[in-house]
Amino acid sequence: MESQWLFNLLLMLQFVILIAVVVWAFRLSKSLKQTKRQHAEAELNQKKQVQVLASGSIGMGRRLVAIEKKLNLAVEKQSEILSKEGSVSYNRAMELLGMGATIDDLVSKCGLIRAEAELISLLKQESRKNSDYH
Questions:
Q1: Cα–Cα distances in Å, from 3 out to 6, 10, 12, 13, 15?
Q2: Going residue by residue through the chain (134 aa), what tens digit of pLDDT does each one get?
Q3: How far apart are CA 41 and CA 49, in angstroms?
Q4: Using CB atoms within 10 A of its CB, is residue 30 exposed (0-12), middle (13-18) or buried (19+)?
Q5: What transmembrane ranges does the database entry give (predicted)?
Q6: How far apart are alpha carbons 112 and 63 in whole angstroms?
């Protein structure tokens, strides 16, 4: 009888342990599901943030390209204007030198600095010498 009682006690103990393991497994499963859900939400939030950043970067890149194009056009136009103005001043200076103008006349009438006026005068003198030899 004592063995029967011991057997029943062990059986009950196994049953209680089995119930405890099942409860523990259920709670662990529930905790795991909650953790998975939290990770999925975090991943979704991160994907949204990456999309926002990517679209912002793409938009900023497009704006930079447009600004760069405008800048290049402005630089080209400025270069054209400066070259036209410069060539007009230099051409006018050559004409004035041909009419006997002085370096001071070139500075005042063509808007050249003195060094430019002197250089153009020297070039004009050299071209006269070369044309006299030929």
A1: 5, 10, 14, 15, 18
A2: 688 999 999 999 999 999 999 999 999 999 999 999 999 999 999 999 999 999 989 989 999 999 999 999 988 888 777 666 656 678 888 889 889 999 999 898 888 889 989 998 998 888 877 776 65
A3: 12
A4: exposed
A5: 6-26
A6: 40
Domain locations along the chain: 1-132
Structure tokens at 57: 């970067």
Amino acid type, 114 = R
Q: Taking each helix axis as running N to C, give the angle between helix 2-98 and helix 114-133, from 0 to 180 degrees, rounded to the nearest 10.
A: 60
Asked if 124 and 98 count as a contact pair (C-beta separation under 8 A), the reply is: yes
